[in-house]
Write a structure and sequence with these properties.
heterodimer, A: 310 residues, alpha/beta, TIM Barrel, eight-stranded parallel β-sheet, four-stranded antiparallel β-sheet, globular, B: 240 residues, Elongation Factor Tu (Ef-tu), domain 3, seven-stranded mixed β-sheet
């Protein structure tokens, strides 16, 4: 028992107002909109369950192929934000809350009022926090276009933060104006930033000359984008005072540690669940625990942003 | 999901809307397909279809399918020399532990059992079809199918009627393993019957709902099982 308490204190973190037993949660987009999905996600050992993005209306998503594996340890996806709509939030959140970890509802929309409405519904349904998806590359409205415009980011975050009491986390993708967008998100009331979303990409079959994804292009995740994520977290940490959740190509504890040193207080894992299986979260947590000791820290909370101090 | 390019060797119209496409994959599989694994077959620019391996011998693979929508319709128009994409084998392979295996298939649900017939010494069971002619023609292509009893709704081949009309002909012991594949109505009826009998172990082969194939999209959830990862054999409890 005493050992467990020690373990907890070594890795426990508070990010964006959420107390986590360890810093590893799942990234939005791997399962996450049905109650049964929550059962599977909880079995991964994540410190918070992050839902798939919910929108106001149900979305069927795109026709297959919607996800393909690409080199190296990466995925290209254009699922099209398939989800059951606002009515699906309560069953998912209620089931997920039964596992005793914070439940973060990812919120999407085609307009600012839609973000506000879905975020409000998530809070009403018992979400511990909302993560505004301002960076999905696979929808025609909202998504990445919204996240690229700092003035729009300010408006959507301010509007959402003024009506919900739970922490508002803002997920941004890489763009030329990432620092400006991050800064505006914090100004608007974001308690934390999730960096980064998938990066737009494409793959073509060389025999039929056809794009592999039905949507032609999609979002690239996995090892291919990890250095981009490290850069994004490092840069935003330097310029903006904010809690950061790092995401992008974490396959091992080293990748997670890198993002923490760049400035992330917590991390999210997505593509690794496909390539390394459901045990990957526990494996990363074990690795981080040993790493914290190896580098002589008493707690992982001493390490976010440590790369800026050398 | 990643694809192995595959060249169409033949695409035979077995009968009516039923086809058997044979492909030569252009790269070796890392692991050979075993029953009842399935592949996502990509018809470039049209659709991605979850299809059970009916044939798997080295680089030659085959899929028995019924034209039901745009994707299967497009696949049926592909001919010798055309290239499609085939994923690595998906799902878990499953070999019954005992020797006594009963297959119960409805229509195109026979597809996964075609590969099983290569592995099971003394297969028995029922295959229900609407038109007897389909059974006659497919049995010519897969002679081991002759070990199953056919039920035809047009009463032109085998027993007359639906498969579920003849379930009492299937003797099931304590060690019998029953594998079912077909329309969900049929699966439900079969599962209820064996549950009521309290005999045998029944597994359902299902893969038609698979969309992404790698456990990401969550659309192939049956009960608490993601078919693409932990299927395609699931317990009857998911259906009754």
């Amino acid at each position: 028992m005493g050992v467990n308490v020690l373990y907890k204190s070594e890795l426990s973190v508070v990010v964006g107002g959420l107390s986590l037993e360890h810093p590893v949660m799942n990234a939005s987009g791997i399962l996450g909109y049905l109650p049964e999905h929550a059962d599977i996600m909880a079995s991964w050992g994540v410190s918070a369950i992050v839902s798939k993005t919910f929108t106001k209306e149900p979305r069927a998503g795109y026709n297959p192929p919607i996800v393909i594996k690409v080199r190296y340890y990466s995925l290209l996806n254009a699922v099209g934000l398939a989800n059951p709509g606002i009515g699906g939030i309560r069953p998912f959140v209620e089931r997920a809350r039964g596992y005793g970890v914070p439940v973060v509802v990812s919120v999407g929309g085609g307009s600012i009022p839609e973000y506000v409405e879905v975020a409000g519904a998530a809070e009403d349904c018992g979400a511990s926090a909302v993560e505004l998806n301002l960076s999905c590359p696979n929808v025609e409205r909202g998504g990445i276009e919204l996240g690229r415009d700092p003035a729009q980011v300010l408006k959507v975050v301010r509007d959402v933060a003024s009506v919900v009491r739970v922490p508002v986390v803002v997920k941004l993708g890489v763009s030329d104006r990432l620092v400006d967008s991050a800064s505006k998100a914090v100004e608007g009331g974001a308690r934390a930033l999730t960096l980064i979303n998938t990066v737009r990409g494409m793959s073509i079959d060389v025999y039929s000359f056809k794009p592999l994804l039905s949507n032609i292009s999609g979002g690239l995740s996995g090892a291919s984008i990890h250095p981009i994520a490290v850069w994004a977290v490092y840069t935003v940490f330097r310029e903006v005072q904010a809690d950061i959740i790092g995401v992008g190509g974490i396959l091992t504890w080293r990748d997670a540690a890198e993002l923490i040193l760049a400035g992330a207080k917590a991390v999210q894992v997505g593509t690794a669940l496909v390539y390394r299986g459901p045990g990957v979260v526990r494996s990363i947590v074990r690795g981080l625990r040993l790493w914290v000791r190896r580098v002589g820290a008493r707690s992982i909370t001493e390490l976010p942003g440590a790369a800026h101090r050398v | 999901m990643s694809y192995v390019p595959a060249e169409v060797l033949s695409n035979v119209n077995v009968y009516g809307q039923y086809f058997l496409v044979t492909l030569r994959v252009l790269r070796n599989y890392r692991r050979p397909p075993l029953p009842p694994q399935f592949a996502m077959v990509w018809v470039p620019g049209v659709d991605l279809l979850p299809l059970s391996y009916a044939v798997a011998s080295g680089r030659i693979v085959g899929f028995f399918y019924k034209v039901v929508g745009e994707g299967t319709k497009a696949l049926s128009t592909r001919s010798r020399g055309d290239v499609v994409g085939v994923s690595e084998p998906l799902g878990r392979w499953y070999m019954p532990r005992g020797r006594d295996v009963v297959f119960l298939a409805g229509g195109a649900g026979i597809a996964p059992f075609l590969l099983y017939l290569e592995y099971v010494e003394e297969p028995r069971g029922l295959w229900g079809v609407r038109q007897g002619e389909l059974a006659a023609r497919l049995t010519k292509l897969f002679p081991k199918l002759g070990k199953l009893t056919v039920t035809s709704e047009d009463c032109t081949y085998g027993l007359c009627g639906k498969l579920t009309d003849h379930l009492d002909r299937v003797t099931v012991g304590r060690d019998t393993e029953v594998l079912v594949s077909g329309p969900s109505d049929m699966i439900r009826k079969v599962c209820r019957r064996f549950r009521d009998l309290g005999l045998g172990r029944v597994g359902v082969v299902a893969e038609s709902m698979v969309k992404c194939g790698i456990g990401v999209c969550g659309s192939c959830l049956v009960g608490s099982v993601l078919l693409c990862k932990d299927g395609p054999v699931v317990g009857c409890e998911c259906f009754v």
